[in-house]
Amino acid sequence: MFRNYFKTAFRNLRKNKLYGAINVFGLTIGLAACLLIGVYIIHELSYDKFNVNANRIVRATMEYSNAGTVNTTATTGTKVGPQFKRNFPVVETYARTFISHNVVKTGDKIFDEPRILYADPSFFKIFSFHIIKGDAETALDAPDKIVITQSMAKKYFGDEDAINKTLTSGGKDLRVSAVCEDVPQNSQIKFDFATQFLNLGNGVKDETWWTANWITYFLLRSEKDIPVLQQQIIAYMKTPEVRTDARLQGNDYLTYHLEPLTKVHLYSSLEGFEPNGSIRYVYMFAVIAFLILIIACANYTNLATAQSAKRTGEIGMRKVLGASKRQVFTQFMGESFLITFIAAILACILSILLIPYFNNITGKQFTADALMQPLPVIALLICTILVSFFAGLYPALILSGTQIMGVLKKGFAFTGSNNLLRKILIVGQFSISVFLIIYTIIILQQMHYMQTKNLGYDKDHVIVLPVGGDMLNNFQSLKDAFKQVPGVEGVTASYETPENVEWGDGITAIDEKGKHDISLNAMPVDLDFIKTMKMQLLSGRDFQQSDFALMDTNNNSANVHMPYIINETLAKKIGWTPQQSINRTIEKGVTGPVVGVVKDFNFTSLHQPIGPLLIFLGRDFSRDFMIRISGNNIPYTLANLEAAWKQRIPNRPFSYHFLDDDYNKLYQAEERTSLLFSVAAILAIVLACLGLFGLAAFTTIQRTKEIGIRRILGANIGSITLLVSKNFLQLVGIAVLIAMPLAWWMGNRWLSDFAFRIPVQLYVFIITAVVTALIALCTVGFHSVKAALTNPVKSLRTE
Description:
This protein is of the alpha+beta class. It has a 6-stranded mixed β-barrel with strand order 3-4-9-6-8-7. Strands 14-15-20-17-19-18 form a 6-stranded mixed β-barrel. Helix 15 (416-452) packs across helix 25.
C-alpha cells in the first residue's frame, strides 16, 4: 500500500514539474532559512552557558549620581571585588578583568596582539576555559606567568611544547604557565593571552571605588544568593563609612547592580568586552524564518488545492475501488511528507553552501559542523514533520472528504471555501512580503542616514595608530615625522577616538552666579585635535604650544592652570553662550579657563543624544594617533608612514585601522539586521511570486477555452490580460493595505531607539505598493498574454 502511495507521489511530481519545482524550491528555501537562523539563535541563547558555574557568576555594573546626573557603566573601580569579598559571605571569589592590546614577542617573532586579558588569579576558577596543559589553580598565581591559547601556542612556538617558554609583553618577560583551548565563539570574554591583573601597573594596585575601567565578576555560593546579595549591596553602599570613603556628598550616590552572566549578552544595555546582542533581534530573526516558511507552506497548500481539480478521476476511481477516506487522506499526506523531506535534504545541502554568506550577515564563524549538531538536526526534523502536516493537511482533508458521485459527475469543485482559502493565503503571502520590503527600506534609509550624517567632524581618511609603552618618549619625534609624509594633512592623538568617548568625569564651572557641579564626558587630547578632525570652533581658539608651559607643575607656580575646550551642549547646560564661555573658569582637579567652544559633534552612538563634553590637553593619556591623509594615493602614503614608524619604533609592528571602520562597528547589529531583512524581503517576494506564478498558470489553463471563446468574440490581448489578472491584483491590493499600517508601526518603533533618526516617509509606502503591484502583474500577465496569443481555434479544438 505505502509503496503504491510513493509511486503515485513520484508520478505526480514528474507529471506536474512546474508545480512540484515551485513547492520543493519554496519549502527548501523556507527550511534552509529556518536551519541557518536556528543555528544563529541557538548560538546566541547559549552565550556563556559553557561555564560550569554559569548560574552562579554575576557581573557587577556601576551606577552613580553626580550633580544630579545618573550614569551607568559596565566597568567598576579596583575596590569593588576585594571589598565585597571581605564583607559578603555569599561571595566565594571575584575576578577583575581588562582586555588590551600590546606587543608580544619571542625570538624574531613579534606581533601587535589585540586580545591580552589581565585578570585576578581566580579567573580560571570562576570561568571554565579548558586548560590543556598546566594547572588552572596556579596558572595566574604569579606576576611573571602568562596563559596562552592553542592558536597562540602554534603561532609562536609551532609544534614545540609551549610550557615554560618565555614571551615578552609590555617590556616584561612572562613564562607560559598553561595552554588553554581557543575561547568559544559564544563567550563574552574573548582572549588569546591571559596574565595577572596587577601587571597593568601601579594604577591598579591601590583599591579605589572610582577610576572605573575594569569589569568585575563574582562567583557566588548559590544562584539563589543573587537577589539577596543585591539588596545587601544597595544597603551597604548607603552606609556613612562607604560614602565617606567614596567621597560622596549631598544627594550624590554610588551603587552596584548584579547581572547574571548568562543574561548579559542578550539583555544588558551596558557593553562589556564586545558589543552585546539583543533578545529583540533574536526574536526578529526567528519571526523572519517563520514568515518565510509560512509563505512556502502557503504556496504548497495553494497549489495542492488548485491541482486537485486535475485529480478528480484518480480520487473517484480509488473510492469506487474501495479506498476509504482514511486511505485517501494518508496518500495525500504521504505526498506532502515526501515533498517536504526532499526539500529538507536539499535545505541541508543549501545551508552548507550558504554558510560563508550567512557568516557575513551575522558576523559569526559558523562551520558545517554547527549544522550537524544534535539540536539543529532534531529541530529541522521536527520542523519538517510539522510543515509536512500543516501544509498537506487542508488539501488532504478536502480531497479525502469528497463524495464519490459528486467527483465522478462534476469533478472537484474549485470554488467556495477552497477559493476563499486560496485568496486568504495569497493575501497573507503578499502582506508578509510588503511588510518586509517596507521595513527593510526604513532600516536601509536609517543606515544610510547614519553613514552620511554630518557628525560634527570628518571621519573619512583618518588612520588610527596605537600609542603605548615607551612610545610617549618619542611622541613628538614620531608626530613630526608623520607630518612630513606626503599626503598627510594633519596629525593628533587622544585617549579615545571621537566616535565613542566613554571617559566619565565631573567638573565645577565657576561664574558670577556661583559654582555649578556637572557630570559629563571628558576627552584628553594632543595639539591639533580640533583642526585634524575638522571640527568647528564657535568661539575662542584651539590648544596651542604655549599651553604646555602653563601646565608645567614643576615650577610650583600659582599660575599653573589647565586650558579647556567645551562643546556647546556643556555651555548651554552651565548657562553660558559660546562667546560668554571664553575665559570662564572650570575646575577639574586643576583650575583653568575655557579657551574655546566647539560645535556639538556626535561622540557616542546615534542612539544617544549629544551630552556635555570637556576636552582638555592631556598628551600623556594618549592611546591613539590619528593621522588625516588626503586619500589621493593611500598605498603610497601608508608605505611612507610605515617607514617612518619602523625607523623610530622598530620593536612594534605597524598596525593601523581607519576611523570610519571604528564608527561602523558601533552599528554592527543594525547593519546585520538590514542585511538579513534585505535577504528576507527578496526571498519573501520571490516565493510569493512563485506561488502566484503557479496559480496563475493553473488558472489560465482552466480558463483556456473561455479565453478562446472571448478571443473569437473580439476580445483583445489587453482585456484578456486584465480579465485573468484583476482578481489576483485585487488580492495584492488588499495585502498592501494590511501590511502598510503594521510596517509603519514597526518601523517607527525601531527608529525610536535612535536619538538621531529619519522620519518615516510616505513615498516609501507608495513606491512599495506600486512596485509590488507591477511585479504581481508581470507574474500573472505572463500567462495571460501567452493564453491570449494562443490561436483560439487550437484552444477550442478539443472541446
